[in-house]
Design brief:
Blueprint: E1 2-8, H1 14-23, E2 27-30, H2 31-41, H3 43-53, E3 58-59, E4 63-64, H4 66-75, H5 79-103, E5 108-112, E6 127-132, H6 135-146, H7 150-158, E7 172-175, H8 180-200
Parallel strand pairs: 1-5, 1-6, 2-5, 6-7
Antiparallel strand pairs: 3-4
Helix pairs in contact: 2-3, 2-5, 3-5
Length: 201
């Protein structure tokens, strides 16, 4: 089985690529969704969050107090502390996901994460893809998808990595400035490439 990492800026189309690959038989692990889940369901993670950010991190001990945690982590510049708690748990969950997928006969396991390359290239990945789109196209996609204004988009976009500076860490840069049909063709072609790499391993 080949382990693939995919990342890209907000509105680049990385989730769409993952959904196309899923239809072709890939197992997809959405790291951001898993992180949100683990913050609530994993006792160790919950305990560390409370010890680090205080009991206000949770409402009634079961519901994540998102506005509070966002304020504590992002407004107060404590994102590194949050990542140090959550990222190892997400990494362990991905390894378990890969083992389960391989046991089911899956050839391609994919980890989708916005911050995939923030600390360099993960050693446990065989292939890394960055999905790129020009900012104006991403802006229009996200405004239509999330029903937000330009200001909100730029706030989110500025908090993301500058992916152009991370190109050297990727095996493939998938350009997505065209139609969905064009992206489908490119995604299928790249998936066939991944299957061939898997056969060689």
């Amino acid at each position: 089985m080949i382990k693939v990492g995919i990342t890209g800026a907000i509105g680049s189309g990385k989730t769409t690529v993952c959904n196309i690959w899923k239809r072709l038989g890939a197992a997809i692990f959405f790291a951001d969704d898993e992180a949100k889940k683990l913050m609530v369901t994993d006792e160790k993670v919950r305990g560390m969050l409370i010890n680090t950010f205080g009991s206000e991190t949770f409402i009634d001990n079961h519901t994540l107090n998102k506005p509070y945690l966002i304020h504590e982590a992002f407004t107060k510049g404590r994102v590194a502390e949050l990542n140090a708690i959550v990222h190892p748990a997400v990494g362990a969950a991905f390894e378990l996901f890969c083992r389960d997928s391989e046991n089911k006969g899956v050839d391609v396991a994919v980890k989708e994460a916005a911050l995939l390359l923030n600390n360099g290239r993960p050693q446990n990945l065989d292939f890394v893809v960055i999905v790129e789109s020009v900012r104006k196209i991403r802006l229009n996609r996200v405004m239509n998808r999330d029903n937000i204004d330009e200001k909100k988009f730029f706030e989110r976009d500025e908090n993301q990595p500058h992916f152009e500076s991370l190109h050297h860490l990727a095996d493939e840069i998938l350009i997505n400035n065209g139609s969905l049909a064009e992206l489908e063709v490119k995604s299928k072609k790249l998936f066939q490439k991944l299957l061939k790499i898997n056969l060689k391993n």
